[in-house]
Design brief:
Length: about 270
């Protein structure tokens, strides 16, 4: 094309003949198709099928209970019929069903969005919506139903996968629970009438080593785990009775006895 534009057109018949010969050889090396199979609907096509495509009614996905889920998990891949060529996924919306312990039920809220990781099926994390939490009794395990509207060539073939559901993310300072101490703090504030009012309250905090001295710093806990808490890095004045809270590079005392504010540490 460039040579034609600049007026230096050459004879390309030899090159055209070479490419035509290669094309003929490729056509001759492949067997001709014996026919066409037309899909009844448009969507994502996959040639991987396991016979469980009709194991559960998609319309009942939101009402799936523990018993039904466990029965589905026990089902083995069925024998594929010889005339099955694949499957077509017509909708972008699909569901994830997983069993959660009873003490996790209070942590999830209908219509909240969570992040789902499928490390063995998809590299990218998925955004999903909590659409149902099905629990028969208060102390029994429940089925968490998530709805996702992301679809690609990897997701179309998954059936039973290991997943990680991130319900909430907290950003703050992680502190060992052993470092927490309870202390009574007092504060004088002014009420709506302008009068002074004294407040006395038990609060949690940590002892921080500042030079050779211990300083008590109050914490505002965002999340409590089994052996750690996550505290607000910049809590508002309304949340604290003191004006001191832990900072990122503070040297927090995790263990020790007879700890108190302004104690001098020897050594």
């Amino acid at each position: 094309t460039r040579q034609i534009v600049i007026g230096k057109e050459n004879n390309f018949f030899q090159r055209i003949n070479e490419l035509s010969a290669k094309k003929d050889n490729l056509i001759a090396s492949h067997k001709p198709s014996i026919g066409n199979i037309l899909s009844h609907a448009s969507g994502y096509f996959s040639g991987n099928i396991d016979g469980l495509e009709g194991a559960f009614n998609y319309k009942n996905a939101r009402s799936l209970d523990i018993e039904s889920l466990e029965n589905l998990l026990k089902k083995e891949k069925s024998e594929i019929q010889s005339n099955s060529m694949g499957k077509v996924v017509k909708s972008y919306n699909w569901y994830i069903a997983c069993k959660i312990p009873s003490d996790y039920v209070s942590r999830v809220t209908i219509d909240d969005y969570v992040t789902v990781s499928l490390p063995f099926a998809s590299a990218a994390a998925l955004d999903a919506k909590i659409v149902a939490v099905n629990q028969k009794e208060k102390n029994s395990d429940a089925v968490l139903i998530l709805q996702c509207d992301q679809m690609n060539s990897d997701l179309i073939n998954i059936r039973k996968e290991f997943i990680k559901v991130n319900i909430k993310e907290h950003s703050g300072i992680m502190i060992n629970k052993k470092a927490l101490h309870e202390k009574v703090l007092k504060k004088t504030i002014k009420n709506d009438n302008g009068d002074s009012e004294k407040i006395e309250k038990n609060v949690y905090g940590v002892y921080v080593l500042s030079g050779k001295q211990l300083i008590f710093k109050e914490v505002s806990i965002l999340y409590s785990g089994s052996n750690y808490v996550i505290c607000d890095k910049n809590p508002s004045e309304e949340k604290l009775l003191s004006n001191l809270s832990p900072q990122v590079y503070d040297e927090i005392v995790v263990e020790g006895t007879d700890l108190y504010d302004k104690k001098i540490i020897k050594g």
